[in-house]
């Protein structure tokens, strides 16, 4: 069979072996089996053997339902559901602010990341202390919903997001690759959680409909006990699935989402800005329009960051890079207009918590966009690698966390 064995005849031609495999995998595997029996010491055949048999090995190593990590995740999911339900009870009684619901979920996600990627003790102590300080401090604030307190509540998710990122990255928190992984995790997590949440809502609707047929209205009970518990527990389950199960669907879809949404956002934004100029809206005088401007700015920033992080570093420059640069330039224009409008309003109407907070976040975003734009321009001029752009994204993330902490812990005191 040696004379007719296609694998043996082309053992020195990797390109031909790859072509044969892609053309007819079944025939290739048959020829390969014989070739491997005759030459088990061949390095080329050894590589192909691992490639052809890797899937079978991977299947045997799939996590068991009774593995420790799965059981720990299940325990955390149950605790998150119970904690969220207890917190919701006090929210209903108006004893605490609704923002406390975040503490029914976030600490357990942090605990799971710490368990799966155990960092040094200083990081564990820091995470624990910051979570405890946050929950105690926020519940010492009066429930009067003044501007400064509402701003503290609005900035809490940013602060907690940074804490979750610290738990996710662990000892590699200073490494750009770990921070990039965390940003990618967020997009995959969002897709997975949304998919499972839609399925849960369909189940909830079906359940309530079935009970309505027998004359029972279970909406209030079902939401307060089942839906709330399930939503909190699902947050932990989704984190486990993304991190531990290596879901190919989520990983394969996120780069395409970035490629599709970047040009769509750019076109939509251009049309919107032209319409705004045509209509004659003025962000300097119209407060609601200024808020909308800042919302657009944050959306563009998020889309740009995901587009950069989802870009394959091995690929050459393409149209997506130029779309990203156009988005960054457009975002800089919007941010510059917004900054001018905020400064005008501050000088004309005085300092308020809202104006000061918007000024701060706009300055932070403006600096970040400038850094990203210059890094991108150097990349397009072949003066730097893609990693320089990603560094401009990842190294700046803690700044947003520090600003959020500043607003949370100082605004209610400064503006009383």
TrEMBL record:
It comes from the Bacteria. Keywords: Membrane, Transmembrane, Transmembrane helix. The chain crosses the membrane at residues 70-90, 96-115, 122-143, 149-170, 191-216, 222-244, 256-279, 291-310, 322-344, 356-376, 397-415. The keyword Membrane applies. Coiled coil: none annotated. This is DUF4153 domain-containing protein. It comes from Halobacillus litoralis. The lineage of its organism: Bacteria, Bacillati, Bacillota, Bacilli, Bacillales.
């Amino acid at each position: 069979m040696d004379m007719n064995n296609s694998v043996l005849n082309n053992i020195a031609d990797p390109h031909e072996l790859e072509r044969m495999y892609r053309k007819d995998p079944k025939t290739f595997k048959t020829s390969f089996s014989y070739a491997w029996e005759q030459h088990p010491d061949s390095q080329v055949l050894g590589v192909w053997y691992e490639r052809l048999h890797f899937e079978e090995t991977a299947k045997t190593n799939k996590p068991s339902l009774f593995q420790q990590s799965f059981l720990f995740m299940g325990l955390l999911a149950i605790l998150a559901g119970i904690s969220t339900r207890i917190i919701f009870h006090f929210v209903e009684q108006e004893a605490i602010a609704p923002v406390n619901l975040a503490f029914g979920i976030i600490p357990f996600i942090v605990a799971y990341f710490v368990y799966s990627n155990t960092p040094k003790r200083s990081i564990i102590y820091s995470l624990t202390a910051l979570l405890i300080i946050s929950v105690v401090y926020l519940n010492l604030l009066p429930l009067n919903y003044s501007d400064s307190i509402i701003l503290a509540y609005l900035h809490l998710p940013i602060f907690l997001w940074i804490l979750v990122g610290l738990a996710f990255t662990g000892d590699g928190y200073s490494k750009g690759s770990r921070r990039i992984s965390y940003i990618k995790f967020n997009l995959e997590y969002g897709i997975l959680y949304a998919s499972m949440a839609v399925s849960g809502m369909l189940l909830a609707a079906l359940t309530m409909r079935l009970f309505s047929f027998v004359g029972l209205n279970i909406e209030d009970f079902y939401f307060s006990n089942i839906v709330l518990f399930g939503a909190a527990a699902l947050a932990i389950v989704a984190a486990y699935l993304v991190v531990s199960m290596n879901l190919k669907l989520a990983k394969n879809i996120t780069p395409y989402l970035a490629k599709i949404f970047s040009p769509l956002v750019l076109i939509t934004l251009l049309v919107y800005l032209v319409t705004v100029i045509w209509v004659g809206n003025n962000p300097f005088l119209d407060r609601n329009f200024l808020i909308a401007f800042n919302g657009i700015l944050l959306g563009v920033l998020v889309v740009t960051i995901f587009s950069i992080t989802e870009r394959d570093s091995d690929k050459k420059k393409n149209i997506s890079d130029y779309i990203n640069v156009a988005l960054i330039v457009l975002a800089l224009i919007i941010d510059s207009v917004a900054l001018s409008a905020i400064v005008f309003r501050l000088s004309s109407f005085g300092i308020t918590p809202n104006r000061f907070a918007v000024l701060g976040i706009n300055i932070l975003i403006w600096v970040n966009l400038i850094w990203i734009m210059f890094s991108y321009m150097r990349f397009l001029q072949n003066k730097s690698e893609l990693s320089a752009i990603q560094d401009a994204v990842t190294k700046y993330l803690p700044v947003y966390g520090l600003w959020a902490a500043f607003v949370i812990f100082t605004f209610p005191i400064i503006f009383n």
